[in-house]
Amino acid sequence: RNQDQDDDYETPSILDLKMLRLKERKWLQMLNNWRYYINFKWEKIRNRCRKGIPHSLRSQAWFHLCGAHLQKNRFPNLYEELLRKNVSNDILDDICKDLHRQFPNHEMFADPNGTGQTDLYNVLKAFAAYRPTMGYCQAQAPIAAVFLMHMPAERAFWCLVALSRYYIGGYFEQNLKDIRIHGQMFVTFLKKYSPSSYHLLKRQNIEPEIYMTEWFMCIYSRSLPWPSVLRVWDMFLCEGLTILFKVGLYLVDSTLKNETTKTCPTMFETCQKLRNIPKSLVTENLLINGIKRFELKDLDLLKEHKHQMKKLQKLTKKQQQQQQPK
Amino acid sequence: MSYAYLFKYIIIGDTGVGKSCLLLQFTDKRFQPVHDLTIGVEFGARMITIQNKQIKLQIWDTAGQEAFRSITRSYYRGAAGALLVYDITRRETFNHLTTWLEDARQHSNSSMVIMLIGNKCDLESRREVRREEGEAFAREHGLIFMETSAKTAANVEEAFINTAQEIFDKIQEGVFDINNEANGIKIGPQLSPSNQKSSSGNQALGTGGGCC
């Protein structure tokens, strides 16, 4: 995987470098005046996130975008305290079993005694101590790992906390209800934006959880070429959930829109297509441009969420009624 | 490639028992000690031969952590075979078998063939679950049983193929309704409806094949 990832980077020209320096200056200026920008110039931040955050400032930018810096300032000693707290052995066992299964080909996480796996253990343990009711859900690990690739453990911890608070907390809950709800929401949007793929999936009874669970839960960190992953995270940390949906719509649409039951006779072939999306479809530029046509707003998500929650309530009520007479 | 039947399998069991490694060993004949943890679902396919018939296995490999069960359940539907895996070096993975089995029985079709697998049998020095215990559990619940090692490939082929053999026998006995795809079996292009008569003529041959 690493070899492939290196191939995705092109050597920058002088002009590229000049542009990069300019970009960096702009980001530094924003970061130095973060409160002003986040309160009054949010659109400027958003547009710059869409253009991609310069590598050198990504760590700082992510830390600020998700609001982790506020929490860290408010509780400056908490991370150290959490590390000293007792966490149940079951949870620690679960965490340990997963440490060598996160980006195993990444240099940072390859060595069981290296800093990558040690930091990952600490971040996940601290999180379990911080939110004892949540404990440890496997989706936390790849997310924490991506943060750790960019920042020290304490900061990565606060970013994970921010994600669980403001972005995708439901993905870490015991029953993963939010994944199922988001799956149903995704289908609604798919019907609107990519009717042909919607019909193919529907005909083969392919539930959204089959293909979108890993995409959404890992914020695409294991499903796209690395440069594209970073761009998705840049946008996601700024704009939130809509990005997960937009990227998903692009992936399904571009992979399946021209497929029929002839090319994908069963669920298996269709799922395989979605699992092995050609790299050429998801390069940085194609992906970023590709998602533009999905004009999803937070409000659309809210409305659809409400709708799906109602549907779910009705369904559970019905199931309960069916069970009672027995 | 054409095939006579297509069987759908699922692999279930606690996290870290080696489900993905079993799948990879069977489909690619290799052991990969480092791999990304399964979140959601992985899958693979391979062609096997049973009584001169080409059979395509489609195998769905699921995430083991408790939280994912609600999602895993949607894969049970339409599976003809299940590999229920535990780790012989971790007693708790054996203790959880009952809940896995309940889940599988509740959400799958009743004729689904379940193979119980004690994996990591290469780690004899760290064994916590005796072979006899696995056999007893299997006997008690009517499962086929085998100990495997995804690392050395011991019994991996057999586990997948014996399950297929059992399904095949059940088809010959008429236990499976092969016209209902919800049972996880599909008739392949080799056995189009016109050829089907000849295949049912082979029934006597089919019933002979026991396993283990």
TrEMBL record, chain A:
Q: Which Gene3D superfamilies match?
A: putative rabgap domain of human tbc1 domain family member 14 like domains, Ypt/Rab-GAP domain of gyp1p, domain 1, Ypt/Rab-GAP domain of gyp1p, domain 3
Q: What is this protein called?
A: Rab-GAP TBC domain-containing protein
Q: Entry's SUPFAM superfamilies?
A: Ypt/Rab-GAP domain of gyp1p
**Source superkingdom:** Eukaryota
Q: Which PROSITE patterns match?
A: TBC_RABGAP (PS50086)
Which species does this protein come from?
Dermatophagoides pteronyssinus
Q: Where is the Rab-GAP TBC domain?
A: 52-240
InterPro entries with a match to the protein in the record: Rab-GAP-TBC_dom (IPR000195), Rab-GAP_TBC_sf (IPR035969), Rab_GAP_TBC_domain (IPR050302)
The upper taxonomy is: Eukaryota, Metazoa, Ecdysozoa, Arthropoda, Chelicerata
UniProtKB/TrEMBL annotation, chain B:
**Pfam families annotated for this entry?**
Ras
The cross-references to PROSITE patterns, in alphabetical order and at most eight, read:
RAB, RAS, RHO
Top-rank taxon of the source lineage equals Eukaryota
Keyword list (alphabetical) reads:
ER-Golgi transport, Golgi apparatus, GTP-binding, Lipoprotein, Membrane, Nucleotide-binding, Prenylation, Protein transport, Transport
Q: Name one GO biological process term.
A: protein transport
How this chain sits in the membrane, per its record, is: Lipid-anchor
Output a single Gene Ontology CC term carried by this record: Golgi apparatus
Query: Which family does the entry's similarity section mention?
Result: Belongs to the small GTPase superfamily. Rab family.
Q: What is this protein called?
A: Ras-related protein Rab-2
